[in-house]
Amino acid sequence: MTDSETLFSRDTLDEMRAAVHETVDRTPVTDIHTHVYAPAFGGLLLWGMDELLTYHYLIAEVIRASRIEPAAFFAQSKREQADFIWRTLFIERSPYSEACRGVLTVLDRLGLDVASRDLAAYRDYFARKSVEDYINTVFERTNLESVVMTNDPFDDAERPVWEAGAAMDKRFHAALRIDPILNDWTGACARLQGWGYNVDERLSGTALAEVRRFLTDWLQKTRALYMAVSLPQDFAYPENSARARLIDECIIPVAKEQHVPFAMMIGVKRAMNPALKLAGDGVAKSDAGAVERLCAAYPDAKFMVTMLARENQHELSIAARKFPNLFLFGCWWFLNVPSLIEEMTRMRFELLGTSVLPQHSDSRVLDQVLYKWSHSRAIIARVLADKYADLLRTGWTLKQSEIDRDVAGLLGGNFWDFLKQA
Ligand code: FIX
Ligand code: ZN
Question: Taking the model in full, what pTM does it have?
Answer without folding.
Answer: 0.98
